[in-house]
Protein 1
Amino acid sequence: PVIEDTVLSSELNTWVYNTDTIDSVLSVLLDKGIKVEGGDKLGKTIIFAKNNRHAKAIVDRFLARFPEYGGDFIKEIDYSIKYVDSLIDDFSDKNKMPQIAVSVDMLDTGIDIPEFLTLVFFKKVRSCSKFWQMIGRGTRLCPNLFAPGQDKEQFLILDFCSNFEFFRVNRRGIEV
């Protein structure tokens, strides 16, 4: 294949993956993400990826950069994965791995897991309703998440694709 000398921004994370960018996002997540178990373990996290290849690149970079977490700490969750329902069931259990789910459209809406503590927007979202549905993944109440009597009181959004800035200007979004 011929490689062009320019790449459009719309092509990033579609077929061009910048490992330095992925590494930076993962480092910020591990540093800033909300922790459980006395601050020893990253709480349940969703990384919203653009497509299957992007999700796989994220998982591969995590496993290469942070092998000490083991292969079950992060999993790709999308329609291409066999046994994805059992993987979602495991992710829904606060006592089971994975801690990080890299989702392609499967966890954006309609999933109710109150343990979500960190949401990573690693894709552009232009639908206002989908944007708020994705944010809603973090809003579920979760009693005793950190310890008996220590309930979930907040969640964190890491937005690497300027979605909040887009919706400040385009309040209704762009329906696709």
Note: The first strand starts at residue 35 and ends at 36.
Protein 2
Amino acid sequence: MNSVFDIINVPLGYLFKWIYYVVGNYGWTIILFTLIMKLILFPLTLKQQRSMKKTQAIQPKLAKLQEKYKYDQEKLSQETMKLYQEAGVNPMGGCLPMLIQFPILIALYNIIRKPISYVMMLSNDVIMQIYERINGSAAADFARIDQIDLANKMRGSFDKVGEFISSHDLINFDFFGFNLSVTPTLQYISEHWIYVLIPIVAGGTTFLVSHISNKMSGMASQENNPTASSMKVMNYLFPLMTAWFAVTLPAGLGLYWTVSNLFQILQMYLMNKHITVDVPVDEDRPTHYRERKKKKK
């Protein structure tokens, strides 16, 4: 292993490689890889969606607590957390779907940044030999080899590296006019303006995920809840972080994040429509109202 992260890099690298060999397209490989990851994480996502539904269900009680303790923020925080515990609610459930993506994102970053190691599955020694064949001189340090650049050069210099790898193993990073191996920095975007879509769409879809999560959980309507206030801050912080990542990391990661967000939005919509939870009975509501509601049923 090259690093401790290979515990997750290598298995996901094999999955990525298998998908690429099946579909033969780098962009579609990232899309299918993303969907498979979302399906694997579906049980956790389902649990979080149930938590958000419960949060939405206890909004009447939260509103009464906010009115009752509006001049005592410390007591409000204590009572709010107590209510969350009683209802089995995780107030940060809306953020977790994004947070749990980071280990996968790091692994995918390594796979995209080092495609010769994790997709072509070539050893360090072979990569060094390929570098020397293509560039005419040995690399001073293996860690400094730009594998993305080398992988691109291998396509045009197959006659020099044919003994190390078959033509079927070469990677084509083109996807609908985008080179997913490039890093769309501000300078690069100024020369190739279409790449501005990557940070815009990645950041925009991240905002939609946060906004919809807060709305479904009822957090968006809470004014005096410290947890809700923190969630609102994260609602803007996450999209800015995503947009920044999208202009400082290879474009393939921007595609991953966009597809992941779109699939997350679809999951939230479908689960919110079909998942039902037990609504806590409001003890402050008059008894005759509850009885009348039962008779209507």
Note: Residues 284-297 have pLDDT under 50 and may be disordered.
